[in-house]
């Protein structure tokens, strides 16, 4: 057997190991969240930070995954997710789509808070939003070196469905391939918060493709309403600790935002890793070794209001149980020589189906934050 024949057999085996179909294809859910307004935003904003914002948004789409979806590829402004096997229920699918949309929009609202930022101004003028296309069909799975490649007619269909006759730019579109797996009653209950409407589009080489769609706009009522640092986030999605620090707020900010100082006050932190040439810039990423693991941080915002209150924000990535989390450090003067620090962790959800696990992790994280802020106060008191 030649080398090429051996490679072909390996690719076939990768795609057919769990399938009994004669053609080697497997049933799969295909889901694509697509950022609407992406191209115009990149081209017209003229802001060098625009591509990095879009990269953050794509990462948030990936972190919002609660259906154990696999990422097949990232295509500029969209992510192709897939999951082999039976389809999720309509309720599970809608819960996933709502999570993606709300996490996406809440992050945009955070960026827009910086009214003095050119990037925030561009977002107001060149709005970004999200559409989500869902299809259920059959795919062939092949391994090409270290990459997984999905192939087949249904992969083409889900990509074609991104161009459709639906008016507006934020919606969920469900192909007939998916809706045919669910009862009318299950679909109606899952979309009780909006209207599920019929539609279809004709595609060359595919023909007429019927689908149902629902606008996502009603979910804007569920977005985290607060846009000011002193207002509370969504109930149940935040942990908060407070302590008076024996230094002025600007001094405390310098210590908190100094990556090198993080192991000296963060509970369990032993080392920090970052690019020295980028330290001090917004958008900089760094890693902190904590206990037996590692947490990835990225600086996002540093705002000061008219009354001198300072809000410093970092994004936390790859935090398995708390995906799409943000750490707010809010500082306000108590007197000339002290300030009140509020550490607040805002998260999208706790990635566990077990109530006791969620309760235990929240309690453990709250204790971690409390000890960290105590150690920070002790460190500043020694200056």
Give the ordered list of helices and strands. HEHHEEHHEEHEHHEEEHHEEEEEEH
State the helical fraction.
25-40%
Question: If classified by CATH, what would the architecture of the largest domain be?
Answer: 2-Layer Sandwich
Termini separation: 73 Å
If you had to describe this structure to a student in words, what would you say it looks like?
This protein has 383 residues and is α+β, with helices and mostly antiparallel strands. The chain has two domains: 3-222, Nucleotide cyclase, GGDEF domain (Alpha-Beta Plaits, 2-Layer Sandwich), CATH 3.30.70.1230; 238-381, START domain (Alpha-D-Glucose-1,6-Bisphosphate, Chain A, domain 4), CATH 3.30.530. Helix content is 33%, strand content 32%. The chain has eleven helices and 15 strands. A hairpin with a 5-residue loop joins β12 and β13 (310-317). α3 runs antiparallel to α4 (90-112) and α4 runs parallel beside α8. It is elongated and about 70 Å long. The termini are far apart. 30% of the residues are buried. Residues 29-162 form the Guanylate cyclase domain. It comes from Hymenobacter rigui. InterPro entries: A/G_cyclase, Nucleotide_cyclase, Uncharacterised_Rv2561. This is DUF2652 domain-containing protein. GO terms for molecular function: adenylate cyclase activity.
């Amino acid at each position: 057997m030649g080398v090429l024949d051996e490679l072909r057999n390996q690719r076939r085996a990768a795609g057919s190991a769990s399938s009994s179909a004669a053609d080697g294809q497997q049933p799969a859910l295909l889901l694509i969240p697509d950022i609407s307004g992406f191209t115009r935003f990149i081209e017209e904003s003229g802001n060098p930070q625009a591509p990095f914002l879009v990269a953050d948004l794509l990462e948030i789409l990936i972190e919002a995954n609660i259906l154990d979806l696999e990422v097949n590829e990232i295509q500029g402004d969209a992510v192709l997710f897939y999951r082999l096997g039976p389809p999720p229920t309509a309720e599970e699918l809608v819960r996933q789509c709502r999570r993606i949309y709300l996490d996406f929009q809440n992050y945009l609202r955070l960026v827009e808070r910086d009214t003095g930022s050119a990037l925030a101004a561009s977002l107001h003028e060149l709005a970004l939003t999200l559409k989500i296309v869902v299809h259920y069909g059959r795919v062939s799975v092949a391994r090409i070196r270290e990459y997984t490649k999905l192939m087949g007619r249904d992969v083409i269909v889900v990509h074609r469905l991104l161009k459709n006759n639906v008016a507006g730019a934020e919606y969920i579109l469900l192909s007939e391939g998916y809706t045919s797996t669910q009862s009318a009653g299950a679909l109606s209950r899952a979309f009780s918060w909006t209207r599920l409407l019929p539609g279809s589009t004709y595609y060359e080489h595919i023909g007429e493709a019927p689908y149902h769609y629902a606008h996502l706009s009603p979910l804007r009522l569920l977005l985290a309403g607060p846009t000011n640092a002193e207002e509370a986030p969504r109930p149940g999605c935040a942990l908060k600790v407070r302590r008076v620090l024996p230094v002025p707020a600007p001094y405390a900010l310098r210590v908190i935002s100094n990556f090198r100082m993080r192991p000296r006050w963060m509970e369990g932190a032993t080392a920090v890793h970052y690019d020295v040439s980028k330290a001090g810039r917004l958008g900089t990423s760094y890693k902190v070794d904590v206990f037996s693991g590692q947490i990835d941080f990225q600086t996002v915002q540093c705002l000061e209001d008219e009354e001198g209150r300072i809000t410093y924000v970092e994004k936390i990535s790859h935090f398995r149980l708390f995906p799409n989390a943000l750490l707010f450090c809010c500082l306000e003067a108590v007197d000339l020589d002290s300030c009140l620090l509020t550490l607040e962790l805002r998260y999208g959800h706790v990635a566990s189906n077990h109530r006791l696990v969620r309760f235990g992790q929240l309690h453990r994280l709250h204790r971690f934050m409390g000890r960290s802020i105590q150690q920070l106060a002790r460190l500043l008191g020694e200056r």
